[in-house]
């Protein structure tokens, strides 16, 4: 199966970095300043694998702190890492963040796992005492009413500097691996925030009639995420459809045949049959129009639903949506059905983090296996599929108008995390995070996506906790255990989050 090229490349986060020290040390301990600067350059090089890094360098006075804050503001950074490389007064650090209000993470990364007690001088010790100022800085931030996050661990060097009297090769030590995993999560979470602030979500049609949990105020969503909602019309898609050529339809058919397995008739469900040639051609023609619509409006995600009048042109048009929206989702443009804008946000978060994000709801509970089947009638995130998804021709879409082609698939077996974006009674967004395991249990052959998921709690206990959080009834399913990552996204976006 060929990996589809993304429609749009995501923006890299802009990360600020500086390290701290005490100005009198430099004259007292020759070589210390240069040694700490080398540690900072190492951190810069590591973070540069995931982001644009703006390294201010050393801050060792309150004057320097103010200058650093202005410097970071001028570069519009999303997140600032302060490397506590040695002792520094809190008056050095606080002004940086009183001026630059980007979130800050303090890095308490010790270069060695154990100092050489017999040979350590005061200057040598000062190169390893990054933890010393952290309580003082934390106290100052608390009294200033400013949040502070701290990563503790080892620096993770792959060599020992010539000036050192101890072993500083710690790259494979667990405290270094753990610390850098956390640093990477903070950087990736900052990338989600930046991309949402610049995102354009298309809203095609309307929200499924009567689904009160999904209704949202576009202004409220933009106010809390920064994303713009572009309202689209079915007649616009119809106009674009008229421009689709036979060659473009054939190209989409080739994509579909590469990405999907075409089913025969379902052995159990008479409405799920082998797609007809006419259904396949129509779905591929619409898929070409859907991608043109996305490119024309420079969209980052698409929310859609249109019921249509029975027998009308728009009913026929929306009946062919699922295949094209699955292809777009695989190309980094998550598509959320039934007009569910909040779940589109959840899917986009998962996609930006490279963890998938397949559109799901509760399908049924298996009390024998103690799993909950999660899925929907499409679309599906092909990148996290357990093998090739199946296309089935549907004689009807249950509860909806029209007929067409739908996706039957399950998420690959292994760790998964669901992300639900809901709205509270006071109008605030909230993330509901659940980690579980996708199992190899059976699924129905009815043309819907379904994944059996085993959560740590019994299904009844899990559902009781989930329902108590007042979720939107859809969620995004991602691969991997991403609870820590999603919590960081929520914190940087200033969105309440809860983990079940």
Task: Explain how this protein is built.
- This protein is of the alpha/beta class.
- It has 2 domains: 14-194, 3-Layer(aba) Sandwich (Rossmann fold); 199-346 and 356-499, L-fucose Isomerase, Chain A, domain 3 (Alpha-Beta Barrel).
- The protein is 36% helix and 23% strand.
- It is built from 16 helices and 20 strands.
- It has helices at residues 25-28, 32-47, 62-74, 90-99, 122-126, 134-143, 174-197, 218-225, 234-241, 246-259, 277-296, 313-319, 321-330, 341-352, 459-468, 483-492; strands spanning 14-20, 52-59, 79-83, 104-110, 149-154, 200-205, 228-232, 261-262, 272-273, 301-305, 335-336, 356-366, 371-376, 390-394, 404-408, 414-423, 429-438, 449-454, 475-479, 496-499.
- A 6-stranded antiparallel beta barrel has the order 12-13-18-17-16-19.
- A hairpin with a 4-residue loop joins β12 and β13 (371-376).
- The longest helix is centred in the middle third of the chain and has 24 residues, at 174-197.
- It is elongated, with a radius of gyration of 26 Å.
- The two termini are 35 Å apart.
């Amino acid at each position: 199966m060929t990996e589809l090229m993304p429609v749009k490349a995501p923006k890299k986060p802009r990360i600020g970095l500086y390290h701290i020290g005490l100005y009198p040390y430099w004259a007292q301990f020759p070589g210390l300043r240069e040694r700490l600067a080398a540690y900072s350059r190492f951190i810069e090089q590591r973070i540069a694998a995931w982001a644009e890094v703006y390294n201010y360098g050393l801050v060792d006075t309150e004057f320097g702190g103010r200058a650093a804050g202005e410097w970071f503001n001028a570069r519009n950074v999303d997140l600032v890492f302060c490397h506590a490389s040695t002792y520094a007064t809190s008056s050095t650090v606080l002004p940086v963040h009183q001026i630059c209000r980007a979130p800050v993470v303090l890095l308490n990364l010790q270069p060695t796992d154990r100092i050489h007690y017999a040979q350590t001088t005061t200057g040598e010790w000062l190169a390893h005492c990054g933890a010393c100022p952290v309580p003082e800085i934390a106290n100052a931030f608390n009294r200033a009413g400013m949040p502070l996050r701290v990563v503790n661990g080892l620096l993770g060097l792959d060599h020992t500097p010539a000036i050192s009297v101890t072993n500083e090769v710690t790259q494979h030590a667990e405290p270094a691996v753990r610390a850098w995993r956390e640093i990477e999560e903070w950087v990736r979470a900052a990338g989600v925030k930046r991309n949402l602030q610049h995102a354009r979500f298309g809203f095609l049609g309307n929200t499924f009639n009567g689904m009160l949990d999904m209704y949202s105020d576009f202004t409220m969503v933009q106010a809390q995420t920064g994303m713009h909602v572009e309202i689209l019309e079915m007649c616009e898609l119809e106009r674009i459809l008229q421009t689709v050529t036979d060659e473009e339809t054939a190209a989409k058919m080739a994509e579909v045949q590469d990405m999907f397995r075409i089913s025969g008739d379902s052995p159990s469900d008479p409405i799920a049959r082998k797609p007809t040639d006419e259904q396949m051609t129509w779905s591929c023609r619409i898929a070409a129009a859907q991608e043109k619509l996305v490119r024309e409006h420079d969209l980052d995600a698409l929310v859609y639903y249109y019921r249509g009048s029975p027998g009308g042109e728009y009913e026929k048009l929306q009946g062919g949506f699922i295949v094209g929206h699955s292809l777009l989702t695989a190309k980094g443009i998550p598509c959320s059905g039934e007009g569910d804008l909040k779940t589109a946000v959840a899917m986009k978060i998962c996609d930006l983090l490279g963890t998938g994000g397949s559109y799901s709801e509760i399908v049924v509970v298996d009390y024998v296996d103690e799993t909950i089947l999660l899925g929907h009638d499409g679309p599906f995130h092909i990148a996290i599929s357990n093998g090739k998804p199946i296309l089935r021709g549907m004689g009807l879409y249950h509860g909806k108008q029209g007929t067409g082609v739908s996706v039957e698939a399950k998420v690959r077996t292994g760790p998964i995390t669901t992300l639900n974006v809901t709205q509270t009674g006071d109008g605030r967004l909230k993330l509901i995070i659940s980690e579980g395991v996708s199992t190899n249990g059976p699924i129905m052959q009815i043309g819907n996506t379904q994944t059996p998921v085993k959560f740590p709690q019994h299904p009844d206990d899990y559902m009781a906790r989930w329902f108590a959080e007042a979720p939107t009834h859809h969620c995004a399913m991602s691969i991997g255990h991403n609870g820590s990552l999603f919590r960081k996204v929520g914190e940087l976006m200033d969105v309440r989050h809860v983990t079940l």
